[in-house]
Specification:
The protein is α+β, with helices and mostly antiparallel strands. The protein is about 30% helix and about 30% strand. The protein folds into two domains: about 1-110, Beta-Lactamase (2-Layer Sandwich), CATH 3.30.450.40; about 115-355, PPM-type phosphatase domain (Phosphatase 2c, domain 1, 4-Layer Sandwich), CATH 3.60.40. Strand 1 and strand 2 form a beta hairpin. Helix 4 runs parallel beside helix 5 (about 170-190), helix 5 (about 170-190) packs antiparallel against helix 6 and helix 8 crosses helix 9 (about 315-330).
């Protein structure tokens, strides 16, 4: 048996070492049987010399952590049912036990990680979630050296709460700024305050801790997953992009306010009613402001072209976020002088009256 975990770059599936587990080289997510099972979130069976090689996605609720693979001499429907149950158990063990060991984190690393990135990864929720009403996926680059970017979300009853932040600077200072910003965001969110009050709370927390010379750009959003009513406050970020039928139909422009920590005016809450299957891309400026020495910035137009190229070629929000980030990285020549993060949300419609029955 092999247990393959997604690496931090979301490029490879890396074997988890352990007694009784097969090792071997990492496998690419794109272009391998294991990767196909991961992308499609379904069991893939492949004929090998000694039987049938089965690849099963490791899903803990809607969080996909990797793939389990083993070979049977033959496979019937009972085997498939038992294999799916085993994969679910393994995924649950990986998620619940990773707080007691470093082995899972170490297996996912394919290069050294900075202390600032270590801090940022410790703050993150699962980078993908999908339920019948809504799906989200995020990715951050450079994965092993990210410092100021972070994202967060929580699904509370019918409301999906989201935030994307970009702390000024680089290295440890940016990581500390981001930590305080995310902590303040979660504290205010859990107090059930409105978006304008949430901004004010975060702004005060950053100002009190760091003074007037340091700041965090941010977007805080709320999506009613029953009605598709989206609200957001923009504090210094690029406008989110509305995607419909794999086309960017507009940037969601609207009044903004100063970055968090600068004591901006009470922000206006922007609103938009989404249509079923609409996607909204929130991103940090590093995605479009990167440029080679003496060259022009990457720019929003190239970002839109990349979205419309990748969208029709991907099946899920998670796959689109991953492939879009990697395509943009290639088009920027691999340059990441600043953090570059994206957070993609798809509204599917419906209600969440039975959230207790959903295995989040």
């Amino acid at each position: 048996m092999s247990i393959l975990l997604q690496d931090y770059d979301q490029i490879m599936l890396v074997p988890l070492p352990g007694k009784g587990l097969m090792g071997g080289a990492p496998l690419p997510i794109d272009g391998s049987w294991a990767g196909e099972a991961f992308i499609r979130e379904t069991c893939i069976e492949h004929q090998v010399a000694d039987g049938i090689r089965m690849f099963l996605p490791l899903l803990d609720g809607s969080d996909e952590v990797g793939v389990m693979a083993f070979t049977l001499s033959s496979v019937d429907d009972d085997d498939r049912r038992l294999a799916r149950r085993l994969a679910g158990l393994v995924a649950d063990m990986l998620v619940t036990k990773n707080g007691y060991t470093d082995q899972f984190f170490q297996a996912r690393r394919r290069k050294p990680m900075s202390v600032a990135a270590e801090i940022q990864w410790s703050l993150l929720p699962p980078l993908s979630m999908a339920i019948p009403q809504v799906a989200v996926a995020g990715i951050m680059e450079p994965a092993y050296n990210v410092a100021g970017d972070s994202l967060d979300y929580a699904l509370n009853d019918e409301v999906l709460h989201m935030a994307v932040i970009d702390a000024m600077g680089h290295g440890m200072n940016a990581a500390v700024l981001a930590t305080v910003a995310i902590g303040a965001y979660r504290h205010a969110r859990r107090g059930n305050v409105g978006l304008a009050e949430l901004y004010a709370f975060m702004d005060a927390a950053i100002d009190e801790q760091f003074g007037p010379d340091q700041f965090v750009t941010a977007q805080m959003m709320r999506l009613d997953i029953g009605s598709g009513h989206l609200q957001w406050v923009n504090a210094g970020h690029p406008a989110p992009l509305l995607i419909r039928d794999n086309r960017v139909i507009r940037a969601l422009e609207g009044p903004g306010t100063l970055p968090v920590g600068f004591g901006g005016a009470t922000p206006k809450v922007n609103t938009r009613r989404l249509m079923r299957q609409d996607r909204v891309l929130f991103y940090t400026d590093g995605l479009v402001e990167e440029h080679e020495a003496g060259g022009e910035q990457f720019g929003e137009e190239r970002l839109i072209n990349a979205i419309e190229h990748v969208g029709p070629r991907t099946r899920s929000v998670q796959e689109m976020a991953r492939k879009l980030s990697h395509m943009l990285m290639r088009q920027r020549g691999g340059a990441t002088s600043d953090d570059a993060s994206l957070f993609l949300v798809e509204w599917r419609g419906g209600t969440a009256d039975h959230l207790a029955e959903i295995d989040l």
